[in-house]
Amino acid sequence: MYQALYRKYRPKTFDDVVGQEHITETLKKQVETGRLSHAYLFIGTRGTGKTTCAKILAKAVNCEHPVNGNPCNQCAACRGIDDGSILDVVELDAASNNGVDNVRALRDEAVFSPANVRKRVYIIDEVHMLSPSAFNALLKILEEPPAHLMFILATTELHKVPATILSRCQRHSFKRIPVDTIAARLNYVAEQEHLNLQPDAAALLARMADGGMRDALTLLDQCSGSDVITTETVISAMGLAGNLRTAQLLQSIADGDTAKTLERFRSLWQDGKDPAALLDELSMLQRDLLMQAVAPRGGRELLSGGYDSETLRTLSGAFTPALLIANLQSIQDALTAMAAQPNPRIAAELCLIRLCRPELCDDVPTLCARVDKLEQAVRSGDIPAPTAAAPTKPAPAPRQEPVPKPSPVQKAQPKPEPKPVFDDVPPWEPPTPPASVPKAKPEPKPVYDDVPPWEPPPEPMAPPEERPPWEMPPAPKPEPRPTPKAAPAPEPPAPPIPEPEPEMVPEPTPEPEPAPAPTGAFDWQALCAYMEHELPIGLYNLLLDPLQAAGELADGTLTLHLNNAPAYPLFNKPDIAEKFRLAVQTLTGQNVRVVMQPMDTATQIKQRQIEELAHFPNVTIR
Questions:
Q1: What phi-psi label fits residue 151: left (phi over 0), alpha (psi between -120 and 50 degrees) or beta?
Q2: Phi, psi (5° rounding) for residue 531?
Q3: Cα angle: 458, vertex 439, 424; to 5 degrees
């Protein structure tokens, strides 16, 4: 079988190698120009042509009449290398010759010049099987190779080759051959051998080869006994009839029929099927279904090839991608737990029950699959969507929220009308003085004065009676605080009180102007309060500091005056400016432009120092 087709159609030149043109073209150019390396490393999966290309290269470098980098296969050197009569080209299997003594003997022999050809070539297959001491012995000759020596190493596991060997070799990676390329080569071989190979059977053989041309030719030779090679012939010859029983088992899982699933598993168990192998086949089948679902166009290249297209088409609509992922996770968990189970049949049966009844599982992938199934049922209309009523319920909630908002506003409006009857003492004033209460009833105007708590409490009764509360500035004034604690202290500070009065007289004049703040007016404090939930806490704290940030709105432009450090570099960003623009639009209804400018902090610091000194009654500011 192996000798019949594979050796007959094994490539003899680089042009005969299919699917590895990126390597064969490079090697042909090197042979033509004579720029050859002393060591090559061919990497790739099994059956992709590593050893074949190594032999072609050995013939090409020793060929007496090369043609465009290809060996002529007619000279004595090419014929001797093909039949193994030339001992200067040696092929070793590192799986059986992996000791340090084998490599040392090779090294001692390699120093001698070739007898019949130009270069002595050593082809070491599965080089990753060498022992560490053998690698060290091989490294010795790779560091300083003779001019007549060439090494061609081949491996399927690159990570097992030491880095010291890799750095001294020219590497070429052999890729898996595409399914279409393998199928075309099988059709060519079938035509040459007069085999009636159907296209579906050729595609199935190409997928089963897993990217290796050698395996594909071997599988074709195995099926060549039939007059017509069909898909059924391939399934019968390859022993894939058991896969059809696995597909039937998965169909019963898709139907949710636990009894039928367990009965089919019992039948497979009686026939000698290993539970771990059965779960592995189930996993591979669902993996193929998942590839078809998530990659419908390129999924054919990703299939394992163990199942025909009709079986996959029948099962494709029974599972969603989320359910396939959940099933694969459950099978992998069962296979892991099966290693520690004394009875693997129990683990397999529990896994099949979980696959049939996902409601018994509480893992995250299964829950996601169940939610996905419900969502698809709702979208398809199989289940009436109760969520349509859900969004209508929260809808009246925001409508009821604005209803109570105007009610406090309406209550707040009649409150300022009965001014003489309303006694609102600021919360920071102690309610101890009863004498101030009767005075506030006939004349409630002085009661509306908001005096900061840090001012000393003088006892000037005349000023609060002379000025109404709406003319009183919110700045610190000692007049409206008649407290018992102030009884001993009011007399000394009484003389200086008339001095700050003329200073504060011009100040209340600008304050009553913003008092009737119309809708849409700009309020910096309101803007700061709004930005509390829009800015990080660090930026919000800087916004509250007058020495770090201040703002003004004029002519449709919001100007933010920011301290050079650290406020200005932190605030001067497009996303921060956009947040301020949206905030002003929400508060005032104006669409403004936001401009950020550095602040003159020296002047601000002096102004703050003056304001802090003005709080002390014994200090006179000139």
A1: beta
A2: -80, 0
A3: 85
Q: Distance between CA 35 and CA 28 in Å, rounded?
A: 10
The C-alpha atoms of residue 302 and residue 327 are separated, in whole angstroms, by 19
Name 187's Cβ contacts closer than 8 Å, sequence gap at least 6. 197, 199, 202
Distances (CA, A) of 68 to 15, 30, 80: 10, 10, 21
HSE (side-chain half, CA atoms, 13 Å) at 140 = 14
Long-range contacts of 73-82 (CB under 8 A, 24+ apart): 73/12, 73/13, 76/116, 77/116, 77/117, 80/116, 80/117, 81/55, 81/117
Check residue 194 and give left, alpha or beta (phi > 0: left; psi -120 to 50: alpha).
Answer: left
Radius of gyration of the chain (CA): 45
From the CB of residue 207, how many other CB atoms can be counted at a distance below 10 Å? 24
pLDDT, one tens digit per residue, over 212-243 is 888 888 888 888 888 888 888 887 777 665 67
Q: What is the pLDDT of residues 428-463, one digit of tens each?
A: 555 554 444 444 444 444 444 454 555 555 554 544
- Spatial CA neighbour of 487 closest among 436, 561, 444, 416: 436
Question: CA-to-CA distance for 234 and 241, rounded, in angstroms?
Answer: 10
Place of tokens 């999924």: 299
Q: Both tokens of residue 581?
A: 């623009």
**pLDDT tens per residue, range 36-56:** 999 999 999 888 889 999 999
Spell out the residues 6+ positions from residue 581 whose beta carbon is closer than 8 angstroms to its own: 558, 591, 592, 593, 594
Task: Determine if the pTM surpasses 0.70.
Answer: no
Task: Note the Cα 561 to chain centre separation in Å.
Answer: 41
Is cis: bond before 427, omega within 30 of 0?
no
**Residues 18, 156, 127, CA angle at the centre, nearest 5°?**
115
- Which two tokens mark 20? 């590895």
> What secondary structure letter does DSSP report for 296?
T
At 178, the amino acid letter reads P
